[in-house]
Amino acid sequence: MTAAPDVSVIMANYNGARYLRAALQSLMRQTLKSWELILVDDASNDESVAVAEQTANGDPRVHIIRQTANGGPAAARNRALDAVSGKWIAVFDSDDLMVPQRLELLLERARADDATIVADNLMLFSDSHSRPRRYLRNRLGRSPHWIGLAEFIDSTWIYSRTPDLGYLKPMIRADVVRRLGARYDERLRISEDFNFLVRIMAQGHQLRLDPSAMYLYQKHATSTSHRFSAADIRAILDADERFLRQAGLTFEESASLKRRIRSLESQLIYDGVIAAIKGGDPGRGATIALSQPRIWLLLTRPVTARLIRLSRKLRPDATAPARCSNA
């Protein structure tokens, strides 16, 4: 009987052929050898499956599952969860990379600290060959920390002073995922990782954060997490409101989630203003804006973004990543 691998890496892929080879090669270079990959291709119409098969080159640890219809990242991840056999489950996106020691060191951190959920810092990079930079440069990026649910949620609303921790890529004990019956919400095509993780954390599990930046998070024009439509925001709002009603949160956790919900509502109103202006009805956009003072700060974002870009040109080591309201 074959022993269960230490880590099951789950990967959802849709038309990621351009980045997939490098991602798989970074996994295959891991110093931890006891892993399996469950790669679910979500009905790609590019060469993703061929690239994956060629890169795996018969490695029995790589399992490729092909969806016949596109169901979105949450559906693909659920398909992967159904197939895992490892003791830990690690989320890995098909356009990202990992340093060779990542899985080994995360496993050591989890075991040493008796953690149910463990994650590391990110190294941000882009396909435009800009200089990589660490995501967390505050106290969270300097030493290990326990992150509770309220703090985690608080990092994900628009005006948070903490970088959005929803971008982190966790490793979670598989027996806990199975015991809780944890599944991704397939109604979500954005923020599904956040929703999955907070529902596990709401059962009393904290996240152990290692400050080492071992996950290389790629930002590019087609990154799903940076494209929000009004429909996406409404779906996220619905999921957050269901979570608020059903999770039995503490007062502090509820307050954090309500702040996040209000910020999403502001984002939705802001998008309505921008849509009206782009649609040739600036008067309607102005009317909406004047009636909703809470979005006025959001209306300064284009100016703020230009100032940040200028700052980075003047200071190449500037590290503030572009903010996004959700993972």
Q: Which structural class best describes the helix and strand composition? A: alpha/beta
Instruction: Tell me what portion of residues adopts beta-strand conformation.
Output: 15-25%
- Per DSSP E runs of 2 or more residues, the count of β-strands stands at 10
- Low-confidence parts: 306-327
Give the ordered list of helices and strands.
EHEHEHEEHEEEHEHHEHHHH
Q: Given the C-alpha coordinates, what overall shape results?
A: globular
Radius of gyration from CA coordinates? 20 Å
**Count of helical segments?**
11
Q: Tell me the span between the first and last alpha carbons.
A: 39 Å
What oligomeric state do the depicted chains represent?
Answer: single chain
Question: Could you estimate the helical fraction of the residues in percent?
Answer: 40-55%
Quick synopsis:
The protein is α/β, with parallel strands linked by helices and 327 residues long.
Fold and architecture overview:
It is globular, with a radius of gyration of 20 Å. Helices cover 42% and strands 17% of the residues. The chain has helices at 17-28, 48-56, 73-83, 102-113, 149-154, 174-180, 192-201, 230-246, 251-278, 282-291, 301-314, and strands spanning 7-13, 35-41, 62-66, 88-91, 97-98, 117-126, 133-134, 145-147, 171-173, 207-219. Mean pLDDT is 86; it is low at 306-327. The chain contains 11 helices and 10 strands. The longest helix has 28 residues, at 251-278. Strands 1, 2, 3, 4, 5, 6, 7, 8, 9 and 10 form a 10-stranded mixed beta sheet that branches. With 327 residues, the chain is of the alpha/beta class.
